[in-house]
Every structure is written in structure tokens, then in C-alpha cells.
Amino acid sequence: MHAMSDVRRRYANFQASKRTLDLTRGKPSDEQLAITHPLFEIHIPRAEVPRLLNYGHIDGLPEARALFAPYLGVPVENTMVLGNSSLAVMHDLVVQLLLSPLPGLSYSWSAWRGMDRMKPTMLCPVPGYDRHHTICERYGIDMIPVPMTKDGPDMEVVRREVESRGSLVGMWCSPRYSNPTGVTYSAKVVRELASMKTARGFRIFWDDAYRVHDLEDEPDEIPNFFELCERAGNADRAFIVGSTSKITSAGSGLALLGLSQANRAWYLKALFAQTIGQDKANQWRHVQFLKDMEGVRALMREHRAIVKPKFDGVAQVLRRELTGIPGVWWEVPRGGYFVSLYVPGHAKQVVHIASEAGVKLTPAGAAYPRGIDPADAHIRLAPTYPPLEDVEFAMQIVALSVRLALGR
Amino acid sequence: MHAMSDVRRRYANFQASKRTLDLTRGKPSDEQLAITHPLFEIHIPRAEVPRLLNYGHIDGLPEARALFAPYLGVPVENTMVLGNSSLAVMHDLVVQLLLSPLPGLSYSWSAWRGMDRMKPTMLCPVPGYDRHHTICERYGIDMIPVPMTKDGPDMEVVRREVESRGSLVGMWCSPRYSNPTGVTYSAKVVRELASMKTARGFRIFWDDAYRVHDLEDEPDEIPNFFELCERAGNADRAFIVGSTSKITSAGSGLALLGLSQANRAWYLKALFAQTIGQDKANQWRHVQFLKDMEGVRALMREHRAIVKPKFDGVAQVLRRELTGIPGVWWEVPRGGYFVSLYVPGHAKQVVHIASEAGVKLTPAGAAYPRGIDPADAHIRLAPTYPPLEDVEFAMQIVALSVRLALGR
């Protein structure tokens, strides 16, 4: 192990190189986007013009719904294919839950069970996806952090909150290769989330953003949450959400939504007030390009070939530089877009030290409600966007920053 | 003029033909969509992949904003190019006005000037666009109908309401070739709407849906509302809205929004909570295809060549069959998508009689808040979608239905 003077010398060398690197953004690299370029060379044939380019199909093109139903794990009649962003879908669902009565009930989240003075509250597994929290913050929804374990959200906390907190209206979940921990929920956790007793208007946003974003040969498998909810008599609990942002294009992709028939009827009314139909041309292109779930999986193997060496690079540097140093650990994910690094009491300091040497990291605490990580421990690393060489270079600076912060 | 027995005989003949025809939908015909087909054959070049297919640009692609700024009549830095539907944009603006504090103020529409018990109220020129009303109805916004005159909304009513109604938060306007009357607001009306004194959070949705949808050589011109508002010190009053739904594609088109810098800063925060970037590939295709405002106008001349004969057909049949019959009149528009037919006291009856002979019309009253036309007068005719021959056939049945209802 290097002595601290060596650490300082190496850090100073990196600093002197004056490179600036960015590990903040969980976005696909140019190389990844290039493999989906053929999708954007597909013509809409003349014969399809009347069907694809006019108003209509506010819940998506039938063949796109058929393609993505198995992706979400719901029947095609429960599948919607919507705009270009699943975040927009989740945002709108929250808005609609706040402003309009829930299916089968006389009240909305805003007037939750008639208790006007209470703020609706959601459970937020932490660390979690910052944009989930942004939605809550924006609309005055209180957030209860639920610590993540290696099996998913701590179900003791979930159970306690669901049983005792009258204002509890819903929960955010990233069940597979969770943003940012990389954790996949255990079968036991998934089953309990589906079957536990809750208030009737309680909703779980099952944000399956990394459904097919495996980094290993054996993908993590989880039970079908939609079916489990249905079987437990809780069909309306689940909003199953997905997108092709990290499959085809982050901006010109498709948002996917699976929901019960009661939720569907409820949401169609909301859609009628806001849209004249989906972008069916783009949905049609996606169907031609991806064809079926095997097509999706084949494309994801190409993504993986580009992305996997970067995750390996991150893990190697962390192992080489930080193994055996007390007060620091990390999670090597089996899928998804992030690596989580934990340095309790020093996360902010590490991010600052790294920035002084030109490496931009996501602000410490960003994965917690209101940006507050009480342990000041968590750092989110996003290695997909920069080239491999940059990732390895940046990670050395991150590792040295950790050692400087810890003085070890 | 034919005697009533002749009218009945002709109606019976039409009925016997058992054709079913639909004049309900203000949508482009297959022939119109065909002229924009080349847009959907445009490839995204490989060199543009990194810029177009990743996250970012939540207010639109810079060159798309530059193209559509003169369309909206606002500076490019006040222009946003958003999703595939201007209805979605107006819907979201209303939601954001209801849920978040207005720029420079401490309250939202929902807590309008601190008066919690009052329902926010909007002015709705009638007859108007039904989807504007749907948004109000859905979110509990009260609607005050303002009669349309040949110059636009009756400004005496507007003035009275703006001065006296404390709950008044905004107004819907379709300033050019208005849906469904075809009326273009006079310069005097536009100027007064921009300069009149209102509460600070008051907003006008300037839904310029038919900006370039002229049917005559000399287009109707109106003063620049955005500039007038700015000059009067009311820059934040105006949301200028447009779309390419009836230019390129109704579903794969673009939504356009012009707004003041204060509104822009306010709305960017709202967008951040709901989107990861616009569909830049589609925006880029639009820029290649339309190029500039001259390109837009050239395309609209092609649309007009298809659409104009249908409007002429409607006017001819109405003139031939109904001229001189008291208790009925109509407006021949100089642009837009609709013809308005008025049969006071008999609109519902006419729609019913026409339906018995196979002609589907928009339900009478649909253009009024909550579907209630107090005079039971207005019938909206949408001649763009069916082939010319069908339009003429259907219009004969409509005319005969009017005569049967009136007994003349």
C-alpha cells in the first residue's frame, strides 16, 4: 500500500495534467447511440401514411403495445406506449393522482381519505433516483427515506410506515439494477410489496428502467410484480414503467406503461384531456427495428459489449487503490448504469477533492430526498458516457480523493 | 325553392342510399398527409447521432427554435419546441399554473390571491375549441362563456369580467381562423387583450393553431400579440401556442411555445421535473423538411389546394339549399378547419335528423363549455377529412336536415 505522501504526489500529478472529466451523467455514450442509428434510417412507407401520421391511438400503436407488453410483463391490453420519456409518464401519473379522484374512490391524493390538512407522503428507498424525489418536492409530497439493503428496500421500515402512517399514498421502486445502488430486489421483497396490506389508493411506481440492462451472462431475475399484485387482489397498486431511452435513444425513444384495467380506464380519461395521439411514426420505427423481445435482447448485448469494460475498469481501480482501507466500500453492479461508492462522513469532501483535480462527480447526497444524505456517505459514479480510458483516469483521481479525505 | 314534400322525398332517397359519412373530425385527409411523406423519409446522418439521440435540450433543438420563432412571432430566446401536441403543452401549463406559484408571485392559480375557497375561473369565447373546455372541466376551473362577434370575443363582456370577477385567472383565445367560427380577431380586439388591466397572474392562452392555414390568397393578418403585451408591460400575460399537427403530421408533429423570459424561467423548472429532453431527431427532420417560414408557406399552399375545394363545396351546398330560409345562417371561413352553421333552437334536432340518414356530425353544443349551447344553435362542420365527393353528398343531407327541422 502506498504511503500518504505517495498519494499526494500522484494526486498532484493528475491535477497538473489539467484534464477535465465528467462522471456525473447516467447517459449512453456516442458509441452506444451509433448501434441504434439504423432505427433512424427507417422510412415510413407510403402505404402506412394514413394510419401512422394522423390523430388517434392515445395509448399507442397496437403493434408497439404488443412488442412491449412482454417487456413490462403485463398483458397487451394493459400496455400503453406513450411519449419519449418515462419520467414524463411518472410525473403525469403523480399530477393526475394529486388532481383527480383515484379509480373506485371519491378522493385524490391531494384530499387523501378526506384529511385535507395532511400532506401526501411517499416512501423513497435511499439512495434512489433523484428525479423521483424532484417530482415529490415540486408538488409538496413528503418523502420518507427507506434504507436500501442488499435485497431491496428495508421491509421492516416499509411495513411500519404502511401500517402506521395515515398520509402514506405511494412508493417509488427501481426494482432491477436499482438507480444508483445496482441492487435487484429479492423475490421475498417483491412478493411482500405486492401482497402487503395498504390503504386502497396506495400506488407503487415500479420503475423498471434497467429491465434488460444486464452486465453479466446470467441476468438478475425478479418475480412478475404486476401478476403478484393481481393475484393478491391489489391489481391497482402497480404502475409498471419502462422506457427505451437506454435501448434506442435518450430523447427519441418510447415510454412504456403497464397498468390494471381500472387504472387504465382512469388514465385514459386523463390522456384525453392532454393528447391527440402518440407519435406513431416513431413507435412504428421502433417495431421495425427491435421486432420482438429477442431483438431487444440482441441489441442489449451490443450495448453491454461497450459498457461492461467501463464498469470493469471502475471496479479494478477501486479494488487496486482502496482494498483494505477502512471506512470505504462500494457495490459492483450486475446491471444498470451506476456504481455506488460509500465513504461515510466524507462523501462531500471526496467530491470536492476530485473536482479540484478536474473530475466532476454527481453532488454528494444527490440520491437522497432534498439532497440530504444524513451519513454523508454515498457517491454515485456514472461510467457509461466517457470513453474507457477517461473512466479509468477519472477513477484513479476518485480513489486518490477518497484516500486524501480519509488520510489513509 | 323546393316544397317540403320534395325535401322529404330527397331526404328519403339519401337515407335509402345507406351511405355513412363523417363530418365530425377536424383532421387532415390522407391526401394531405401524403404531401408531408418526404419528411418521414429523412435519415438522421451518422454525424448528428451524438447530438440528436442523447439526453438534453429540454426546450428544443436550437435550429428548430430558430425556425419556429418567426412562426410564433417571438424572439428565438423566447421560443420552445416541445413534444408532439400543443394540447399537451396547454394542459401542462394549466397544471403548472394550478400547482406551482406564478412567476414573481407567492401563489398559484389554486390559491389565487390567497382566496382558498374560490374556484379559479377562465374566460371561454364561444363557440370555442372543446378541448380547452375539457382541460378546465377536468381540473375544476370555472368557465365564463364570452360570445364571439365577427371581430373576436365580445370585449364588453371581457372588460366587465376582468374588472369585476376576482377569481378570474385567464382566458382561452384562438385568434386566427378561430375554432370553430373561422373568425380572425380584429386589431382593436388584439390590442385591448394585450393592454387591458388585469390581475398579475392572469394568463391568455393564445392558441394560434391556424397560423398559416389560409384558404384565400390574402391571408388574415393580426398584430403581434406577444409584442403588444410586452410593450404594454404585460409580457407575462401571453402564452403563444402553435403546432405542426396540421402542417406535417397530427401525431408526429411538433408543439411550439412562445413565452416571456420570466415565464420561461418558471416553465423550465417545471420541465426539469418531467422530461429528459425533447425528441430532437424529429425536430431535426422538421428543420430539414420545412427549412424556413417560406418552406412552411409553400407546404401550406399544397394543403390549401386539397382543402379549399371542400370548403367551397360546403358553401355551395349551403347557399343552394338554404339561401333565403329564415332562422338559419352560416359562416364561410377564410382559413382554418371548420364551418359553423347556426340553426337556433334546432341544432340538436338537425344533428339527429342528419344521423338518421347516415351523416355523423359533431354533437350540437360541443363547442360550448360543458357541451351546453343555450341557444341550441351551433353546428360545427369539419369538411377536411372526407373526400370532396363525400363532403358534398353529406352536406346535402345536412341542408335537408335543417329544412326538415325548420319545416321550411
Describe the structure.
In chain A, α8 crosses α9 (225-231). Chain A is 40% helix and 14% strand. Chain A starts with a helix and ends with a helix. Chain A is α/β, with parallel strands linked by helices. Chain A has helices spanning 4-16, 30-35, 49-52, 62-72, 86-99, 130-138, 155-164, 187-195, 225-231, 261-272, 280-290, 293-322, 347-356, 388-406, and strands spanning 21-22, 79-81, 121-126, 142-149, 152-153, 168-173, 203-207, 238-243, 255-259, 329-331, 339-342, 359-360, 378-381. In chain A, β3, α6 and β4 form a beta-alpha-beta unit. An eight-stranded mixed beta sheet of chain A has the order 2-9-8-7-6-3-4-5, sandwiched between helices. In chain A, strands 10-11-13 form a three-stranded antiparallel beta sheet, covered by helices on one side. In chain A, strands 1-12 form a two-stranded parallel ribbon. At the A-B interface, α2, α3, α5, α6 and α10 of A face α2, α3, α5, α6 and α10 of B.
Question: Which SSEs are present, and which pair or pack?
Answer:
Two copies of one chain form a homodimer.
Chain A: H1 4-16, E1 21-22, H2 30-35, H3 49-52, H4 62-72, E2 79-81, H5 86-99, E3 121-126, H6 130-138, E4 142-149, E5 152-153, H7 155-164, E6 168-173, H8 187-195, E7 203-207, H9 225-231, E8 238-243, E9 255-259, H10 261-272, H11 280-290, H12 293-322, E10 329-331, E11 339-342, H13 347-356, E12 359-360, E13 378-381, H14 388-406
Parallel strand pairs in A: 1-12, 3-4, 3-6, 6-7, 7-8
Antiparallel strand pairs in A: 2-9, 4-5, 8-9, 10-11, 11-13
Helix pairs in contact in A: 1-14, 5-6, 8-9, 12-14, 13-14
